[in-house]
Predict the 3D structure of the following.
Amino acid sequence: MSALTRSRWRCSVIRFFSFIVLGFLVTASVSAQPLSNPKHADSTDPFYSIESWLPTPGVYRTASGAPGPLYWQQRADYDIDVTLDAAKRSLSGRCSITYHNRSPHELNYVWIQLDQNRFRKDSAAIMSRPAPSLAGRASFSSVQTLLTEQTFDGGYKIDAVTQGAMDEGADADQGQPSPLSHLIVDTMMRVDLAEPLAAGESTRIDITYHYNIVDATLIRARGGFEYFEEDDNAIFEIAQWYPRMTAYTDYTGWQHNQFLGAGEFTLELGDYRVNITTPADMVVAATGTLSNPHEVLKEEWIERLSSIADKQKPTFIVTPEEAKENEAKKSESKKSEDSAEQTKTWSFNAENVRDFAWAASRKFIWDAMSVKVGDRTVTAMSYYPNEAEPLWSQYSTESVAHTLEVYGRYTFEYPYDVAISVNGPIYGMEYPMICFNGPRPEKDGTYSKATKYGLISVVIHEVGHNFFPMIVNSDERQWTWMDEGLNTFLQYLAEQEWEENYPSSRGPAEKIVPYMRGGNQRPIMTGSDEILQFGNNAYGKPATALNILRETVLGRERFDFAFREYARRWKFKRPTPADFFRTMGDAAGTNLDWFWRGWFYSTDHVDIAIDSVELFLIDSGDPDDEYERKRRKEETEEKTLSKERDSELQRRIDWQPGLKDFYNAPDYDEDKVEESDREAYQKHLKSLDEEQRAMLRRTTKFYVVKFLNKGGLVMPIPLRIHYADNTQEHVVLPPEIWRYNSNEVKKVFLTEKEIVRFEIDPKREIADTDKSNNHWPPKIEPTRFELYKSKKDGGNPMRKAAEAAKKADEDAAKDDGKASDEAEAKSAAPAQADKAGKKSDKSRKNEESETQLDAMKNKKSDKEADEQSDTGKDKQVARPMKKQPSQKKAAKTQSDEGDDE
């Protein structure tokens, strides 16, 4: 039997058994749908198994959440030659894809992603985008984006799609390639194969293409260029830049949901050989390892790279001074095939990655440091312009190293040789071994606290994406939370290991409370392009859920073991949500269906309230004790208002003789303990054993607390109990306490001490959305209000115009008076000079004294005139005058416009 025949026979057997198993389980799942129960106050069961909602386990994916014995996934290897035309801001290339069909299915066609087509004017992404708010005011940047999208000639220009030669010994450039029929559907392209691709076989597809690079400062993108007018240079961050194979999976077939912008990429793993041709004076960073360093790097750069192993801090490979020199020396664009000295070709190899990205610029400073990962050494690197200093040289590469170390402890050791952070126009985007990050300081080199921690956090987050989804290769186009949510959770752990009191924006339970209590939500288990409130839904809520699962539900030890197991099971494989849910429950040894149902499949929130507290004590049955308790109650109980007022009444029995009898005698007490009562009690005691008699003597207090689940999301109940002796106790009631009724439940607490207070969630660990009902007795939290002084109405336009006109008249009068005085003084000056010359020295001195005295009098007179003029303003006739903005308002307008620009 030939290899091809055996492969086809194996596929037929797999399909036959798969159909049988699938048919049986589909029938079972249909009958297992949860039904509403009208005969119970709690009409739905939050502990009902979600198994019927999950894909059927089988030979590909097991019920424990691990890959099955026949698990498969496709593979795509790439050979790419690409040229950057920096002047024209365009890219042209030839992409050869070797596609390996490891599925049990025969394929007549394949689908390829053309993600640059999102920038076509007629793309589904642009045409389906709702209108922005244009009412009232709109920023320059938002309108500029709308205008640019309508004029930018974006999208792939496919020059040729041909069948490549599979013979590795043959020259692919020899002979005439066979064209392949293809159809472009928005951001997807179907390529019809010349012959069906059988299971276990491979084919090669060659695609020649070009496209214009988007200006990422004008159009929001995941790759593009940023232009620096000051030195006529640019930073290019190039991503989604080559036709990429669409994922073909066991759970959905071809994942060809169109790229609308939110749902990121679902890709196949493979090996890459990439040649990148750029202007000769550019520095290039890319996925993979550089295979021709001596052809593209200066000798001093190579020497500096070789020295980093002995250093504990990042070392400059390209210094800031060298980067400035490089900015000033721009090579001309390649003008002919013979002008090879004007360009350089950087060659990179990357093994077992699902994507490839790169960056190029003359402006790049480059630093690097070694990071110990297990028994291997990884090079952490950063590329950034001088505009990013001094922030980037201090924090970027250190953040890269920190991420590899922390993530490795919670998942697996980082398997690649390099990890790179690049500063450019993209604020945060991830690719294998390389990521793009945006925060920069101000032009004077200073930066805010938000900018500093923004940089550290975004580097941790984007480098962390190497683990999820670059290695644990989840389907981002379908389930954003599987990479963003899991990664945000680990980001929080890494941030807390960076420094104490790190200002994490996501992770702690209390951070998600405003979102959980609000509206306009969809469950986490929503398709990536249908999510509402993207950041909270796909990043914040799943990260918070996992943090609660780790801290409150499972505890760190069990959670960390289970999470690490998931990461290692699905390393270089493609998990689904069901695989994550099943693995976590399987490895932690706990049924977590209630948790996934509440946090991931619903929009319920946490709001647990204390409704009431009752105190019960053991009644020993001793009649004397009962009598004494009743007597003390009557003595200490305050009289009712009616009894208090009736105490002065004249009662008939007091003044009419003969009305009092035995029951009115002072010695009569209806509650008096009779001897027969004591004998009966002693007889009862003799019927009990010693343990039972001891129980009657106990003073244990039984506090029964009634809890209400107002938010609908069942959760453990963290409870702090405060005692009268100023001690306290922290207990956590497990979520199963809600299993009989998820709306309300009572719990009894036994103690010998007096309880004075109960408090739910004192450590803010379950994202309870309403703290006001978490206390017994109720706790009054003050709300502060501000005092203000009433101001007169300043919004009368007529008054403002009149005041402006008056001020203009006064200014004009002052200017006229000043001009008249100056002219008068000028005409009198010669006569005064002649007269003064004829006077004796003594008379001249006297005249000077008189002149000074007159000047003082005139000054006083002018001041009085001004004061009279001010008091007479209201009597002047107002003239309309153009309203001028205040300096403060004008400055604010300029600042706003600057921000928009």
In short: The CA atoms of residues 37 and 737 lie 20 Å apart. The longest strand covers residues 75-85. DSSP finds 23 helices and 31 strands in the chain. The mean pLDDT is 87.
